[in-house]
Amino acid sequence: MAAGQSRSSNILVVPQARGALEQLKYEVAQELGIQIPQDGYYGYMATRDTGAIGDTSHAVLFKLPSSNCPAAVSDKPTVRGDR
After folding, report:
1. Full-model pTM
2. Is 19 left (phi over 0), alpha (psi -120 to 50) or beta?
């Protein structure tokens, strides 16, 4: 598969975030000491390594401050059906 192409069927809610997510992936890989292939082909990487990058990226995203989230602005916790 050529660089920049993906088999993923995931659709970004904010397409402009693609660059930031790519940057996060490279930063996480560097922190973990994992070399990302320059050609963009991940087929020769260990599943353990690609999984570690994804898991750590996911954890980082969910630790970010959610100041833009309406639920974070409210003092009371959001309950399903309470809007």
Report:
1. 0.60
2. alpha
Give the contacts of 67 (CB within 8 A, at least 6 positions apart): 73
Sign of CA dihedral 26, 31, 36, 38: positive
Distance (Å, whole) CA 55 – CA 60: 9
| Contacts of the segment 28-31: beta carbons below 8 A, 24+ positions apart | 28/53, 28/56, 28/57, 28/60, 29/53, 31/56
Q: What is the pLDDT of residues 26-79, one digit of tens each?
A: 999 999 999 988 888 888 999 999 999 999 998 988 887 655 555 544 444 545
Residue 16 DSSP class: G
Whole-angstrom Cα distance, residue 6 to residue 11?
A: 11
**Do residues 59 and 22 make contact, with C-beta atoms less than 8 angstroms apart?**
no
